[in-house]
From TrEMBL, chain A:
Coiled coil ranges: none
Primary site of residence: nucleus
Domain SKP1 component POZ: 6-66
Pfam families named among the record's database cross-references: Skp1_POZ
Domain of life: Eukaryota
Entry similarity comment: Belongs to the SKP1 family.
Full protein name: Elongin-C
Tagged with keyword Translocase: no
Membrane-crossing residue ranges in chain numbering: 74-90
Organism whose genome encodes this protein: Gossypium raimondii
Keywords assigned: Membrane, Nucleus, Transmembrane, Transmembrane helix
GO annotation, biological process: jasmonic acid mediated signaling pathway; protein ubiquitination; ubiquitin-dependent protein catabolic process
GO cellular component, one term: nucleus
Species classification: Eukaryota, Viridiplantae, Streptophyta, Embryophyta, Tracheophyta
Automatic annotation (TrEMBL), chain B:
Source organism, top-level taxon: Eukaryota
PANTHER family noted in UniProt: CULLIN (PTHR11932)
Domain Cullin family profile: 374-601
Disordered: annotated span: 646-665
Pfam families named among the record's database cross-references: Cullin, Cullin_AB
InterPro entries per record: Cullin, Cullin-like_AB, Cullin_homology, Cullin_homology_sf, Cullin_N, Cullin_repeat-like_dom_sf, WH-like_DNA-bd_sf, WH_DNA-bd_sf
The name this protein goes by in its record: Cullin family profile domain-containing protein
GO biological process, one term: ubiquitin-dependent protein catabolic process
Keywords: Isopeptide bond, Ubl conjugation
GO molecular function: ubiquitin protein ligase binding
Length: 91, 697
């Protein structure tokens, strides 16, 4: 993966997840974050810190991103995936 | 494993930290307020999106959305007021640039702010029906900057100033204009319309009112239209470059009204350069321009059409009543055709083949052609001229073109039956004298007439052709059955069916012995094969070829009329004959005889007879001799042609009378038909207008 195509997501504990930008931008919030004009810190450095999200959750989120990219065209209901976790995230 | 294990699992809501800190909202808001400041100050790179987003999110979640929103409004408003001041401070032309720059800054900031406040935008705002962040930002800009008292009027006057400068030929910064106008459009169509478009249209109307006044005083029609067209195109171009596309039709309406509609009549009737002059001089480009400009305004085209129609009728009327022109019918018809060609050309090249103009042309021609009641006769004479000699050597396609043009004139005639009468006469003369240039052309015209008017119209004409053909066969049969006659004078008979041919009074004269014997043989041959018919010789219509030897031995072959032949043959048995003797011997009616003698004794180059006295007129006491001194360059000399001529006044009266009589039975038949339809309740008379009939269901 090229550096320019990736973004680093950092959990509350400091664990770093390096994923494709395309995957990260499944989240509208992250998309806004990275494409907002004016150069917020995250876009400048290509790193997003989530001080309130634990590594476990963040890992699951990253898996969801990739799953979403792969299966989004089949219109799967999100429930089938969420069924395996018992938490709620703001995405 | 317990048997009481739950089968369905539940998703529990995420439990947030309970807010303990009473100043939580304050603290959180001040972080965000600070961030907004930094954003407006171009200092965003130090900020963490995630942190700001989270804070905004938390505020909304903990029911502090109200505070967040009102804080946003206040902060933004404060910033915009400052921005306003800095724009006001800009001098002269820099005003618009500063405005544009600040607008771009504001947009960027607005987007960033909206991004971090996205959660509020999606949840709090719809729930409370407040204005979304982006729209809020635009509204605040509009209220605090654009509509600030010091900026609003200055902005408008600068924009109008620039437009005016461009109209007077200066180059302006179109990119800047486009951005400013786009800003107004983004702020809402009512802003664009009230703060720019309406005043723009008013000012433009004044400008063009002045322009048109200035031009119309000093330009001729063609130049004025060129200028109007230029201005119109300029405005359309202006719209594509920096105005809202919806303004195009509005501004073009202004130009059209001020420059064209208001001066329409003056332009069309302008002396020396108006519509009539353009028509006379075939100014296709100017006419085309006028057409394209006038079609944009109400009644524009109808104005052009009306003036063209009345002009056409005027010159048409002059044409058909000008005594000079009427002296030569062929010339007259040619002039008509030329005029039609000219206007066809104008309509196709300048008026884009507009059907309404074509109709106006047709109705005008129909009007003036029928003003002169000799038009049918003249058109027939024109055709006669063409079929006798005019079409000699012309290609087949060109022949068709000319005949089609004749048909076109024919269609305009109201008295088509008059035309038929004359045509029949002229055709008869052509056929009998063998003087037609092309049989194909003759038949082609008959077919066209048939297509136009039906079988009835041309049945007799076709009968005439048939008679000619049949006569040829008859002559062959005659000579085949009388082989002993092949050494004598050759007889050619055309048997004409009465009714197909124009009625002629049947006049006989005394034929010379050789001829009359031959004629009798033919008569008995013909009646032998066709029982129940009657033959009468039309001696006034025939021709003869005679070989003559004159005093000095010069031989000539003379082509003469039958009457002339009778007269000449007398001189085989006499050297001198008086008028009275000739009259008695031949039995030719007096007026015809005088004409006949005149053509042989008084016409230079054809004077095979000598007359004493040598006066021009034939007197009852004149004496005639063979002119032994007769000379001619040619061996074959033609005397006595039977050319179709313009009718004299009494002849004209006679023809017209016959036409009227022929119409009577047709009209009576039509009346009878109408009466029977009324009786049988297919028609009824209109109650108010005695001239109107109505169809009944």
């Amino acid at each position: 993966m090229k550096k320019e195509d990736t973004v680093k997501l950092i959990s509350a504990e400091g664990m770093e997840f390096v994923i494709d930008k395309e995957a990260a931008m499944v989240s509208q919030t992250i998309r806004n974050m990275l494409t907002s004009p004016g150069g917020f810190a995250e876009a400048e450095h290509g790193e997003v810190t989530f001080p309130e999200i634990s590594a476990v959750i963040l890992e699951k989120i990253c898996q969801y991103f990739y799953w979403s990219l792969q299966y989004s065209r089949f219109g799967f209901f999100i429930f089938y995936f969420l069924g395996s976790v018992s938490c709620f995230f703001y995405l | 494993m317990s048997n009481q294990k739950k089968r369905n699992f539940q998703i529990e809501a995420f439990k947030h930290r309970v807010v303990v800190d009473p100043k939580y909202a304050e603290k959180t808001w001040s972080i965000l307020e600070h961030a907004i400041h930094e954003i407006y100050n171009h200092n965003a790179s130090g900020l963490s999106f995630e942190e700001l987003y989270r804070n905004a999110y938390n505020m909304v979640l903990h029911k502090f959305g109200e505070k967040l929103y009102s804080g946003l409004v206040a902060t933004m408003t404060a910033h915009l007021k400052e921005i306003s001041k800095s724009i006001e401070a800009a001098q002269g032309d820099l005003f618009l640039e500063e405005l544009n720059r600040k607008w771009n800054d504001h947009n960027k900031a607005l987007q960033m702010i909206r991004d971090i406040l996205m959660y509020m935008d999606r949840t709090y705002i719809p729930n409370t029906h407040k204005t979304p962040v982006h729209e809020l930002g635009l509204n605040l800009w509009r209220d605090n900057v654009i509509h600030s008292s010091k900026i609003q009027s200055r902005l408008l006057s600068m924009l109008l100033e620039l437009v005016h400068r461009e109209r007077t030929g200066e180059v302006i910064d179109r990119g800047l204009m486009r951005n400013i106008i786009k800003m107004l459009m983004d702020l809402g169509s009512s802003v664009y319309q009230e703060d720019f478009e309406k005043p723009f249209l008013e000012v433009s109307a004044e400008f063009y009112m002045g322009e048109s006044q200035k031009f119309i005083e000093c330009c001729d029609c063609g130049d004025y239209l060129k200028k109007a067209e230029l201005r119109l195109n300029e405005e359309i171009e202006r719209v594509t470059h920096y105005l809202d596309v919806k303004s195009e039709v509005k501004i073009t309406n202004v130009v059209e009204k001020e420059m064209i509609a208001n001066h329409m009549m003056r332009l069309v009737h302008m002396e020396n350069s108006g519509l009539v002059n353009m028509l006379l001089d075939d100014k296709y480009e100017d006419l085309g321009r006028m057409y394209n400009l006038f079609r944009r305004v109400p009644n524009g085209l109808s104005t052009i059409r009306d003036v063209m129609t009345s002009h056409l009728r005027e010159i048409g009327k002059q044409l058909v009543t000008d005594a000079e022109k009427l002296k030569d019918p062929v010339e007259f018809v040619q002039r008509l055709l030329d005029e039609k060609d000219k206007y066809d050309s104008i309509i196709s090249q300048a008026f884009s083949n507009d059907k309404t103009f074509q109709n106006a042309l047709n109705s005008s021609f129909e009007y003036f052609i029928n003003l002169n009641n000799r038009s049918p006769e003249f058109i027939s004479l024109f055709v006669d001229d063409k079929l006798r000699k005019g079409l000699k050597g012309v290609s087949e396609e060109d022949v068709e073109i000319i005949l089609d043009k004749v048909m076109m004139l024919f269609r305009y005639l109201q008295e088509k039956d008059v035309f038929e009468k004359y045509y029949k006469q002229h055709l008869a003369k052509r056929l009998l004298s063998g003087k037609t240039v092309s049989d194909d052309a003759e038949r082609s015209l008959i077919v066209k007439l048939k297509t136009e008017c039906g079988y009835q119209f041309t049945s007799k004409l076709e009968g005439m052709f048939t008679d000619m053909k049949t006569s040829q066969d008859t002559m062959q049969g005659f000579y085949a059955s009388h082989p002993e006659l092949t050494d004598g004078p050759t007889l050619v008979v055309q048997v004409l069916t009465t009714g197909s041919w124009p009625t002629q009074p049947s006049i006989t004269c005394n034929l010379p012995a050789e001829t009359s014997a031959l004629c009798e043989k033919f008569r008995s041959y013909y009646l032998g094969t066709h029982t129940g018919r009657r033959l009468s010789w039309q001696t006034n219509m025939g021709t003869a070829d005679i070989k003559a030897t004159f005093g000095k031995g010069q031989k000539h072959e003379l082509n003469v009329s039958t009457y002339q032949m009778c007269v000449l043959m007398l001189f085989n048995n006499a050297d001198r004959l008086s008028y009275k003797e000739v009259e008695q011997a031949t039995g030719i009616p007096a007026s015809d005889l005088k004409r006949c003698l005149q053509s042989m004794a008084c016409v230079k180059g054809k004077n095979v007879l000598r007359k004493e006295p040598m006066s021009k007129d034939i007197g009852e006491d004149d004496a005639f001799f063979v002119n032994d001194k007769f000379t001619s360059k040619f061996y074959k000399v033609k005397i006595g042609t039977v050319v179709a001529q313009k009718e004299s006044e009494p002849e004209k009266q006679e023809t017209r009378q016959r036409v009227e009589e022929d119409r009577k039975p047709q009209i009576e038949a039509a009346i009878k038909r109408i009466e029977s339809l009324i009786e049988r309740d297919f028609l009824e008379r209109d109650n108010n207008d005695r001239k109107l009939y109505r169809y009944l269901a």
